[in-house]
Design goal:
Length: 227
């Protein structure tokens, strides 16, 4: 299996890459920076917020069996008072780049395969601190559903699914709680959060089901997380 993976540099993406390598899958990773990776991994550098660079990724990677969209950005940026530049950055990476990646992957999946979008529980309900981040994840949910509907209408065998986790202890969470580090430290003391590997295992489960099985979405959260 050949997998194209965005967001390979850290967090969930890095955990997915580790599991893929354990299973000896062929891996093409996308990152904004150089990484020390096994020689078996093909690394493509790109800033996903720049459409030209994203298009170059798909021009270089060749046929694939699966696309996993792990790349994402999270700012705690309220609708009432948030920084509109942060809104734009989240929208370009979380929504526009993800949607375009799905579109560009379709010709590379001509024999079938899977598209998997890593989303969030914030795409199913808006938490008090959800701000503009939550709407981007609602958009991911809608894009995933629109893509599935269009592919079925076209009689495509490409499977489409998403993963919607609650709090996952990744560098993205440190970014989200920037300026509120004490609150994050307290949360880590009182809540056993999901790990990137927890999510990666669900990703691989979705890819490895029989070809006639399409898992729409997996919602998962820590047993310590109430909402």
């Amino acid at each position: 299996m050949t997998i194209l993976l965005t967001g390979i540099s850290s967090g969930i993406g890095a955990a997915v890459a580790e599991l893929c390598l354990e299973k000896q899958y062929k891996l093409i990773g996308v990152s904004r920076r150089e990484l020390k990776l096994p020689s078996s991994v093909k690394l493509l550098k790109a800033d996903l917020s720049i459409e030209e660079e994203l298009r170059e990724v798909f021009e270089q990677c060749g046929p694939i069996d699966a696309l996993i969209n792990c790349a994402g950005i999270a700012y705690m940026s309220p609708v009432c008072s948030g920084d509109s530049q942060q809104w734009e950055e989240m929208w370009r990476v979380n929504v526009h780049a993800l949607a375009l990646s799905c579109q560009l992957a379709i010709p590379l999946l001509s024999h079938g395969g899977s598209i998997l979008n890593v989303s969030s529980m914030s795409g199913w309900r808006v938490p008090p601190s959800g701000g503009f981040y939550s709407p981007t994840k609602f958009a991911v949910r809608a894009i995933t559903e629109a893509l599935r509907s269009e592919l079925r209408a076209a009689r495509s065998t490409i499977r489409v699914g998403s993963i919607s986790p609650g709090f996952v202890d990744t560098p993205l969470l440190d970014h989200y709680f920037k300026g509120r580090e004490t609150q994050l430290a307290d949360q880590r003391k009182t809540m056993k959060m999901l790990t990137p590997t927890d999510i990666a295992q669900s990703c691989l489960h979705m890819l490895e089901t029989p070809s006639h099985v399409e898992i729409e979405d997996i919602q998962l959260r820590s047993t310590d997380q109430s909402v």
